[in-house]
Design goal:
By secondary structure, this protein is of the alpha+beta class. The chain is 35% helix and 11% strand. The protein contains eight helices and four strands, in the order ααβαααβαβαβα. Strands 1-2-4-3 form a four-stranded antiparallel sheet.
Length: 199
């Protein structure tokens, strides 16, 4: 797939087919994540890959659907909420592979001035985007959820994660369902958001 196609075809999917994804394919996707920029060039990231149904059930025990009172979605945001909130658990149950990307805060920069304190987080999100694009290139799609309210600790305990790791999000990877729902996408024009040399 051409790179521009990968960029434009990448979508967050919340409904998946009941089709397996090979470990070899997941390996290529994670390898693309490892090519992301790293401020110290050490790339000290770790990943827990869950493809066993029982292990996935244990990891998802604390995850529940979110309430949604929207009956008629008239904006892209409302569409997303109506589609995504009820599927916060089922999208990972349906995805054949669950990826937990993990990183540690670098002690050298924790107490430094902003924005250097964001460097660990920023590079991890570069990793995550590479994973999304690599999955798209494989003909697959990803779901994502940022765990909140004590969920990261419970999820990491369920997979016996080593101490001091941070879980920024959960990623489900699989073949998108033929009837998968997607909200309307809006893309600003370059003229609306690009400012050359000054605002």
């Amino acid at each position: 797939m051409e790179f521009e196609q990968v960029i434009t075809k990448r979508r967050t999917t919340r409904q998946f087919k009941n089709e397996p994804v090979s470990r070899e394919t997941i390996g290529r996707i994670i390898k693309a994540g490892l090519a992301a920029p790293s401020f110290d060039h050490c790339r000290k990231w770790n990943f827990v890959i869950i493809d066993d149904p029982a292990a996935k059930t244990a990891a998802l025990e604390c995850v529940e659907p979110l309430p949604c009172a929207i009956k008629e979605a008239t904006t892209p945001l409302a569409q997303m909420i109506k589609i995504a909130f009820p599927k916060q658990k089922s999208m990972f149950e349906e995805a054949p592979v669950l990826v937990l990307p993990l990183y540690k805060r670098d002690k050298r920069i924790i107490n430094e001035p902003v924005p250097r304190t964001h460097m660990d987080t920023a590079e991890m999100w570069c990793v995550i985007e590479n994973i999304f694009l690599a999955a798209t290139n494989e003909g697959l799609s990803c779901a994502m959820r940022i765990p909140t309210e004590g969920q990261p600790e419970k999820i990491l305990a369920a997979v016996d994660c080593a101490e001091d790791f941070i879980l920024p999000c959960m990623i489900g990877i699989g073949h998108p369902a033929d009837n998968a729902e997607y909200p309307t996408q809006t893309y600003p024009s370059l003229a609306d958001c690009v400012h050359w040399n000054k605002w």
